[in-house]
Fold this protein.
Amino acid sequence: MKVKRFFAPDMRQAMKLVRDEFGSDAAILSNNKVAGGVEIVTAVDYDSSILRQSSDNIAGQDQDALTDSLADALAKAKDVIDNASERQDLSIEDAFQSKTKISAHKSNAEAMMGALGGKAHNVSVESATMKAMQSEIQGLRELLKEQMQDSMAERKPVEAMVQKRLRRLGISKVFAQKVLAALDLEENIDFSSAWDKAVGQLQGNVLTTSSDIVDQGGIIALLGPTGVGKTSTIGKLAARYVLKYGPENLALVTTDCYRVAAYEQLRTIGRILGVPVRVVDDKHPLEDTLRALKSKNLVLIDTAGLSAQDPNMTEQFKLLKSTSARIKKYIVLSATSQGQVLQAAYDAYQSQGLNGCVITKLDESVSAGEVLSLIADNRLPLAYVADGQKIPDDLRAADARHLVYQALELLEQQEAGHATD
């Protein structure tokens, strides 16, 4: 195994050093007070030859012996978890050691199961029994996980409360942990003060574009999955520009050849505003279209809404790269989407060199934490927030403080609704 010593001013910082280097798989061999703080001795990577030897020995055992060995490994794991469950003062060090023991017993059991599988022609073991044992081992691990969380909640109740509320807000587990790590909360801080600090951290992590992208001009393309509101946002941006500067120096372009309705909607917007609308297709390449519109101060491109699995997405990306013109790309994200859906959309489009994002449908969402978490965690600048159907009224330039407080208002509405149930 690998053994290492850690020194720190106090136990909390020492355990953080252990977690940062070894994660949760380290076993605490000893901890002592020393001059200037504490010393922890840890170990990881138990000798795998023991498990290999166990597996080799299994080859000569009969069915009853194998079953007994499996039962013994499972019983040892259960003893560890039972002992941990009975203790009310379970420390972080104890929890780490218990988890390591569970992992070791689980590895022994899995090695035996593997050997049984390899001798299927000699040893007959009911698959249902195997599955039951695997399920019980997993259940024991989950129980220990809950014990560790409960123990940490007892040791750091305010931090646990802040983390819980961040999760209710919709903030991802990973980003919530980053926020908590940045807070560096004092031991005697109250929840209200800690929560105010967390809100400040959220605001500080939301980047915004330096100025209104409509005022900057140029060629702007909106990207994103279908149904997130790209065409509606194009209409709002176009109306915003026309109200400020008139229609003469604006043009609209669509690369969406997959939906007839998309072009019709954009053409209706163009007719109302009095600006030209161009369609990019096989006969009208993007390069030629943009060259013909080079006299315009602002060109807004509405792209096709495609999922990451759609083979046409690659063609859309090639199309945007086919022109020599500099195109600023903004992904449109719907506040009504689940966190995993938002992350999948971001992963699909980030390769295009995104300049920022637009959040839509905030008025339809019951939680804004998911989209807030994604843009903050990925350092994706926010350009606009859309929260209604009115053109151009329901489109606002990005404001990190306002977005966070909108997310908090939605959380409070949820909490108030639960309180009246």
